[in-house]
Amino acid sequence: GFDRSLVKGALAKLIKITDEKNATALEVIAGGKLYQIVVEDAITAKALLNRGKLKKRVTIIPLDKIRARHTSNSAIKAAKSIAQSSNAK
After folding, report:
1. How many C-beta atoms surround the C-beta of residue 25 within 10 A?
2. Tens digit of pLDDT for each residue in 27-72?
3. Cβ contacts of residue 1 below 8 Å, gap of 6+?
4. How far apart are CA 71 and CA 87, in angstroms?
5. What separation in angstroms does the CA of 66 have from each of 6, 41, 54, 61, 62?
């Protein structure tokens, strides 16, 4: 059978916002991605698509396929510089 514990749920349900003033910004930036379904692995994603009886089209995020992105120090310094100059106006 299908192990439902491998389906973690909608991304929006998995995020905890500690400061409510940031909630709107998160909603604007993430948009529809908040409704993507997080699953443990690609095998679970495939099983969900094949046998999940989904009622609508969804995007599934298998955790074993996520890779971290790294930002260079020079890009971080440039962003900080731009932010500081924007705040000075």
Report:
1. 10
2. 898 999 999 999 999 999 999 988 877 888 899 999 999 998 888 9
3. none
4. 22
5. 16, 10, 23, 8, 7
